[in-house]
């Protein structure tokens, strides 16, 4: 009897539920009660469920009537951002593309206008409508050179050539004289002092020129042997006139063209043609 009682007590003890056991879950749908008072419970962050450590699911579900919220998309994953970006890029491309096309069009128009102007100018020239070329200004003729018998003035003296002898080979007589190296040219001159004071006239200061423009000086030594014995080296008072001859020894091959008189050191010279 005592052994049976112990076994029966053990069976009864094993049939009792352990401490903390809450029994089987209720059958059927969960009871529908009034909604909880106050603000709705805040859900866990996106991608997590309430539960154990770390917020991961531990076998329990969120309360009835409150599904887990959807995770929020980042700003660059939203549709409106890409639509706005496409619009901005399109506007910028339109602005820059339009400006380039307009500049190119302006350049083409300017180039075409320039080519048209050149073509019109060429046609104008071809038609013989060129402006008349300016004629070169006529050169002023030099004043006619004085001739034998004309009077010219330089400084305080007035000169008049009265005679010219060419091809003279000797001057003087058979005893006293001089032979020309080439030929003597004798120029007879009348000189008048037109100044206010006495002036010395020197025949050696006068020059003779040929057709080539070569210059020849007077031969004072040969002038001493002239019959008149007047080589023009003397003072002439105001108003007085002196006649004399200037001798030049020049090559036989040249032709004397003119004589140049100078009445003073700084006075302008004058020319007389010798024919």
Automatic annotation (TrEMBL):
InterPro entries: DUF4352, Immunoprotect_excell_Ig-like. Residues 1-15 have a biased composition (Polar residues). The chain crosses the membrane at residues 79-99. Residues 23-48 have a biased composition (Pro residues). Residues 101-131 have a biased composition (Low complexity). Gene3D superfamilies: 2.60.40.1240. This is DUF4352 domain-containing protein. It comes from Spelaeicoccus albus.
